[in-house]
Design a protein that fits this description.
8 helices; single chain; 42% helix; two-stranded antiparallel ribbon; 5-stranded mixed β-sheet
Length: 273
């Protein structure tokens, strides 16, 4: 565009992103119904053999200019740069099912999840994964669940890896390998999204509100690209190496015994595949 000021272009881009979010996000980033959930479970199991996975969750950081507000220092993350945190759940086809963005960069993954709509729905017992069909594995009822990393809190509908210090046998090591291989899907989803929309990699000096709209618009357009199988070159992929440090989230108070039984049941199942 020639003869157009930078500030005008910024206004156009921000307005475009706002319109994408207002009119397209709800159609292209949404939690699955029962039939779609079953397809997701089957898709993950075909990939790695891991059963009953209804999605994978992880966090990422979007660089921003340090906000000139009272608590601006809260936006400085553990790597020392200012950012807003983005937490997302994806399906087996690199599409976002849920995106939560806007928290200050210093906030831990586990806190973001606990305060998110999906986290609260799981706590209250009416999340999309809890509507999925329970499966009998070696005589144990295994519900549909999300895979998270060690930063998350262990619970029946959010399984994390075995803590490294607690691994005592090859079965548990195999579980962690399969868990990681399956959860890598969310890392690749972030990488594909950032590869397509490199605004997510650069310092965004817009307002916090516009930054959030920019990210949500990019995620929406990414899903549309994936839905229509748009071309994606391997060299575009960006490693998601800016997620929160995996500081252990611990074990939740509710369903700890059930989650531990699920850990071992799935580990045994994977060993016998």
């Amino acid at each position: 565009m020639f003869g157009v000021g930078i500030s005008t272009i910024c206004e156009i881009v921000n307005e475009f992103c706002r319109l994408i979010v207002e009119h397209l996000l709800i159609e292209h980033i949404k939690l699955p119904g029962v039939a779609h959930l079953q397809a997701i479970i089957a898709g993950f199991e075909v990939k790695t053999g891991y059963p009953q996975v209804g999605g994978c969750i992880d966090g990422s950081h979007i660089p921003i200019r340090l906000p000139d507000i009272t608590k601006g220092a809260d936006y400085v993350n553990y790597k020392g740069f200012s950012s807003i945190a983005m937490q997302a759940i994806c399906d087996h086809q690199y599409q976002f099912l849920n995106v939560n963005v806007g928290w200050p960069g210093c906030v831990h993954d586990n806190q973001i999840f606990r305060n998110s709509n999906i986290g609260q729905q799981i706590e209250q017992g009416h999340s999309y994964v809890q509507r999925g069909q329970v499966r009998q594995i070696n005589g144990v009822e295994v519900p549909v669940h999300i895979l998270g990393d060690a930063a998350n809190t262990l619970q029946p509908h959010l399984l994390v890896p075995f803590p490294r210090v607690d691994i005592v046998n090859g079965t548990q090591r195999l579980f962690n390998y399969k868990h990681s291989a399956t959860r890598m899907t969310i890392e690749n989803t972030f990488g594909r999204c950032k590869g397509r929309f490199r605004i997510l990699l650069k310092l965004n000096d817009s307002t916090l509100e516009n930054c959030v709209y920019n990210v949500l618009a990019a995620c929406t357009l990414h899903n549309i690209c994936e839905e229509y199988r748009a071309i994606f070159l391997d060299e575009w992929h960006v490693p998601n190496d800016d997620a929160n440090l995996a500081v252990a989230g611990g074990q939740g108070q509710n369903g700890v015994r059930q989650a531990n039984i699920m850990w071992q049941t799935i580990a045994d199942y994977l060993e016998n595949l």
